[in-house]
Structure to design on (472 residues):
């Protein structure tokens, strides 16, 4: 059961959630719901309802005798209606009222779920006194169990790579502007079966209103398949993720990355140690205390929990930014402002520019975003060599915050590939596109070309120029 978000009611189809064409169709009764095709209109409001609307228009334009002939000639049970849902989702909302457009989205979705349940169970009017109680329960459950229907949207110029063989650096520099758009809210019985992980092995995506689930890595037997309910390692630190999950879903996450010390949580919001030749991370509001069992107690204003020390092969990257947490046996506590490696103190209260690259840790998210923004700015003014350098630095940081095959890294590879292509580095551009396509395939499988059509366009452009204008 799905419903469109309020902010997209005027621009997207109310059934399939795709963008509306110029010749929009609408419900003949309330004229509130908009649809992109007759198929979506019939699925949403019912085939018989659509026929009645068409017949009323036709009847006004025909003579009485001709209308009687047409009405008798049309079969009562058309095969075209065979696949239409028995309980169209818009039927109970229709009737000239605007309540479905005014009420909150989750309330309208709860109404759809309730009406479908009543119709499936053939519940009569004697059951109406329990409806209000059920509706309140449904609303509270929907706010926890619903999924946002997300579509990918590119705000770049369409058909960017099909213009000409003269690849102008300023005009055609592709600095990615693909964003996730939350067009709808839905309840999926299958999707709600999966637990949350801040480092999921399952990726959810949507084509129209259909939910697709795909494993992004090889999962050993008996290991659970897990989705992310929103926060992921690399996007927020441990405290931020736990706060979001507690506020929205009322639980404390105990997944692998929330139970074990990891590099991303140490550096994502950290400062750089002022001591020369030290790459240690300094945290502003987090303290660590080491216990006799070699575990760590992490404490912040919004979170307190116990972390285990990772196995040997995961320690290498952590050691260079938090040596003391791993190696010091008699460590009592490292408070806010102290380097996690050499224990040097940085007075954060006297630090005036928190966003400065000289103050922030080189692996932090602030530096990654700064590298990305500066690189995009250079690309926009045609300075592609510094743009390439900043884009490469952004990729290095993202690979530490996430991992080398994360989708966020793939988008950066696409930016770098387009810059390389503009610089004339065709082999490097093709490598970047292939690298991004490999990562996209882990998340979207054979739907990559449908969701990211510009990947194939850029790959063809790189090959065509590399072969002297011969398209392959």
């Amino acid at each position: 059961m799905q419903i469109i978000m309020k902010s997209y009611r005027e621009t997207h189809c109310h059934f399939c959630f795709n963008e509306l064409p110029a010749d929009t169709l609408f419900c003949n009764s309330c004229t509130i719901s908009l649809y992109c095709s007759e198929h979506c209109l019939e699925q949403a409001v019912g085939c018989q309802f659509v026929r009645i609307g068409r017949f009323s228009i036709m009847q006004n334009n025909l003579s009485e005798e001709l209308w009687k002939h047409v009405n008798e000639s049309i079969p009562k049970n058309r095969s075209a209606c065979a696949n239409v849902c028995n309980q169209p989702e818009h039927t109970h909302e229709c009737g000239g009222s605007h309540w479905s457009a005014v009420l909150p989205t989750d309330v309208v979705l709860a109404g759809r779920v309730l009406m479908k349940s009543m119709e499936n169970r053939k519940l009569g009017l004697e059951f109406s006194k329990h409806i209000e109680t059920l509706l309140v329960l449904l609303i509270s459950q929907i706010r926890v169990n619903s999924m946002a229907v997300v579509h990918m949207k590119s705000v770049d110029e369409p058909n960017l790579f099909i213009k000409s063989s003269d690849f102008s650096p300023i005009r055609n520099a592709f600095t990615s502007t693909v964003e996730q758009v939350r067009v709808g809210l839905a309840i999926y019985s299958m999707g709600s079966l999966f637990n949350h992980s801040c480092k999921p092995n399952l990726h959810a995506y949507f084509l129209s209103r259909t939910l697709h689930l795909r494993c992004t890595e090889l999962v050993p037997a008996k290991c659970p398949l897990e989705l992310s309910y929103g926060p992921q390692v690399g996007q927020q630190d441990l405290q931020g993720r736990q706060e979001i999950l507690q506020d929205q879903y009322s639980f404390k996450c105990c997944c692998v990355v929330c139970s074990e010390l990891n590099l991303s949580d140490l550096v994502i919001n950290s400062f750089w140690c002022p001591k020369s030749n030290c790459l240690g991370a300094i945290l502003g509001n987090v303290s660590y205390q080491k216990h006799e069992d070699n575990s760590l107690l992490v404490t912040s204003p919004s979170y307190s929990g116990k972390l285990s020390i990772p196995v040997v092969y995961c320690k290498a990257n952590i050691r260079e930014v938090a040596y003391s947490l791993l190696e010091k046996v008699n460590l009592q506590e490292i408070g806010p402002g102290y380097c996690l490696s050499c224990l040097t103190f940085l007075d954060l209260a006297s630090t005036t520019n928190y966003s400065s690259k000289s103050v922030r840790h080189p692996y932090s998210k602030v530096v990654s975003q700064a590298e990305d923004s500066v690189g995009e700015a250079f690309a926009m003014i045609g300075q592609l060599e510094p743009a390439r350098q900043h884009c490469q630095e952004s990729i290095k940081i993202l690979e530490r915050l996430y991992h080398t095959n994360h989708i966020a890294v793939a988008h950066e590879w696409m930016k770098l590939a387009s810059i390389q292509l503009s610089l004339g580095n065709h082999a490097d551009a093709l490598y970047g596109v292939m690298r991004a396509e490999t990562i996209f395939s882990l998340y979207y499988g054979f739907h990559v070309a449908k969701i990211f059509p510009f990947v194939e366009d850029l790959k063809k452009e790189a090959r065509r120029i590399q072969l002297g204008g011969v398209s392959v």
About this structure: The chain is about 40% helix and 15% strand. The radius of gyration is 28 Å.
